[in-house]
Specification:
The chain has about 270 residues and is mainly α. It has one domain. It has eleven helices and two strands. It is globular, with a radius of gyration of 20 Å.
Length: about 270
């Protein structure tokens, strides 16, 4: 039994809350590090193994797991930024084992479910790594908008057994389930709740058609705003991110919208025949 399991055994009824408090306390202690400077790397609040342990112990829906992904994403992007600026294979000041462990932890989270939110785009826009951009632009977003997925998961990692165990345990959480006939509900949908719903993709709560539509609108608005602002105003986007963004906004989104219109027309035709 490692130290985290031992602590967990002492507070089983309040473990998630207490671990989350401790984790966020660590986050505040490392917040002074400049994330996107030329020489600094944003450190993780704990070891990469802790992040994998959290995912396995508390599951992908827990708030501490979401917080862990947010921290992993910032660190993973900061590593990529240094690789871009220093032209080295391993970030300066970090050994290869630590670097690979952080990359693996990020991959394991991506393999388990979608943690990405529109609010992450500003951070991701500084990345040029296909291991970061691929899961978002070629897997998660195509899945959401109902178009072809060109980036296959799970990604390979050193800790292959960890990947397969977590992916198998959360396999049912990968499907977005739409409830037909709920699109005309009178109750409004809170945007924060909608974002959390798509981030979690949990079978604990099925998403109504109206909610799926609002999730798509949130992503569409953020993607288009970022794309067109980068064209006219310039920005700090990497060329790789800019190209992925352009392809999705100018090519994939119009295709997805046309496909959606055709499906709606086909549905209307079938109803009229009935």
């Amino acid at each position: 039994m490692d130290v985290w399991d031992f602590i967990f055994s002492l507070i089983p009824d309040h473990a998630e809350t207490e671990f989350n408090k401790a984790f966020n306390n660590y986050l505040s202690n490392v917040a002074s590090i400049i994330i996107f400077s030329d020489i600094h790397i944003k450190p993780l609040a704990s070891s990469p193994k802790f992040y994998i342990w959290v995912l396995r112990k508390f599951g992908p829906d827990a708030q501490i797991t979401v917080d862990c992904f947010n921290d992993l994403l910032k660190t993973r992007v900061s590593l990529d930024i240094q690789l871009q600026t220093s032209n080295v294979e391993v970030p300066i000041g970090m050994n290869q084992c630590t670097y690979k462990a952080i990359c693996d932890a990020f991959k394991i989270y991506c393999n388990s479910k979608n943690f990405f939110l529109p609010s992450h785009l500003e951070t991701i826009s500084r990345s040029a790594s296909h291991e970061i951009l691929g899961p978002l632009f070629e897997n998660y977003l195509p899945t959401l908008f109902g178009i072809e997925v060109t980036f296959q998961l799970p990604m390979e990692t050193i800790e292959e057994s960890d990947v397969m165990q977590i992916v198998e345990e959360s396999n049912d959480m990968q499907v977005i389930e739409v409830i037909e006939g709920d699109s005309n509900g009178e109750q409004g949908v809170n945007q924060n709740e909608v974002q959390s719903d798509f981030q979690i993709l949990s079978t604990k709560r099925r998403l109504a058609a109206k909610e799926i539509k609002e999730i798509k609108e949130l992503w569409k608005q953020k993607l288009e705003d970022m794309h067109y602002n980068s064209i006219y105003n310039g920005s700090g986007l990497t060329n790789t991110f800019r190209n992925s963004l352009r392809i999705f906004v100018e090519e994939k989104l119009p295709y997805a919208e046309e496909k959606s219109r055709q499906n709606n027309n086909n549905s209307l035709s079938k109803r009229r025949k009935c």
